[in-house]
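Notes from hallway chat w/ T.B., transcribed later so I don't forget. T.B. wanted the structure written out for a chain they're using in a teaching module, and asked if we could keep both sequence and C-alpha coordinates in one place. Agreed to drop them here.
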Amino acid sequence: MPEEKRGWYFENAVIARLIAAGWDVSYWKDRNYEVDAVAKGPKGEHWAIEIKTSPTSHRELAGLEKFCTQ
Protein backbone atom coordinates (compact mmCIF):
# COMPACT_ATOMS: atom_id res chain seq x y z
CA MET A 1 0.00 0.00 0.00
CA PRO A 2 1.46 3.42 -0.90
CA GLU A 3 2.49 5.34 2.22
CA GLU A 4 0.67 8.50 1.10
CA LYS A 5 -2.64 6.59 0.83
CA ARG A 6 -2.38 4.63 4.09
CA GLY A 7 -4.25 7.20 6.21
CA TRP A 8 -7.02 7.57 3.65
CA TYR A 9 -7.54 3.79 3.43
CA PHE A 10 -7.47 3.38 7.21
CA GLU A 11 -9.98 6.20 7.76
CA ASN A 12 -12.33 4.68 5.18
CA ALA A 13 -11.97 1.21 6.72
CA VAL A 14 -12.86 2.51 10.19
CA ILE A 15 -15.89 4.40 8.86
CA ALA A 16 -17.03 1.38 6.82
CA ARG A 17 -16.80 -0.82 9.92
CA LEU A 18 -18.86 1.63 11.97
CA ILE A 19 -21.54 1.73 9.27
CA ALA A 20 -21.54 -2.09 9.00
CA ALA A 21 -22.10 -2.25 12.77
CA GLY A 22 -25.21 -0.07 12.47
CA TRP A 23 -23.75 3.32 13.33
CA ASP A 24 -24.88 6.47 11.50
CA VAL A 25 -21.66 8.26 10.48
CA SER A 26 -21.07 11.79 9.23
CA TYR A 27 -18.30 14.36 9.62
CA TRP A 28 -18.17 17.84 11.11
CA LYS A 29 -16.46 20.99 9.86
CA ASP A 30 -16.49 24.58 11.11
CA ARG A 31 -14.17 26.99 9.29
CA ASN A 32 -10.65 25.66 9.97
CA TYR A 33 -11.78 22.87 12.31
CA GLU A 34 -12.95 19.38 11.40
CA VAL A 35 -13.64 15.98 12.92
CA ASP A 36 -13.06 12.87 10.79
CA ALA A 37 -16.22 11.10 11.95
CA VAL A 38 -19.20 11.87 14.13
CA ALA A 39 -20.92 8.58 14.83
CA LYS A 40 -24.30 7.85 16.39
CA GLY A 41 -24.44 4.33 17.74
CA PRO A 42 -27.36 1.91 17.73
CA LYS A 43 -28.24 2.90 21.31
CA GLY A 44 -28.23 6.64 20.49
CA GLU A 45 -24.77 7.40 21.85
CA HIS A 46 -22.66 9.98 19.98
CA TRP A 47 -18.91 9.87 19.40
CA ALA A 48 -16.59 12.38 17.75
CA ILE A 49 -13.63 10.46 16.29
CA GLU A 50 -10.26 11.51 14.86
CA ILE A 51 -8.83 8.65 12.81
CA LYS A 52 -5.02 8.62 12.48
CA THR A 53 -2.32 6.15 11.47
CA SER A 54 0.49 8.15 13.04
CA PRO A 55 1.01 10.03 16.31
CA THR A 56 -1.52 12.83 16.73
CA SER A 57 -0.41 16.40 17.34
CA HIS A 58 -2.28 18.88 19.51
CA ARG A 59 -3.14 20.84 16.35
CA GLU A 60 -4.90 17.79 14.92
CA LEU A 61 -7.02 17.52 18.07
CA ALA A 62 -8.22 21.12 17.81
CA GLY A 63 -11.27 19.99 15.82
CA LEU A 64 -12.33 17.62 18.60
CA GLU A 65 -11.89 20.36 21.19
CA LYS A 66 -13.97 22.79 19.11
CA PHE A 67 -16.68 20.19 18.46
CA CYS A 68 -16.96 19.36 22.17
CA THR A 69 -17.41 23.00 23.17
CA GLN A 70 -20.37 23.59 20.86
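Follow-up for T.B.: The CA atoms of residues 63 and 69 lie 10 Å apart. Might be a good example for the class.
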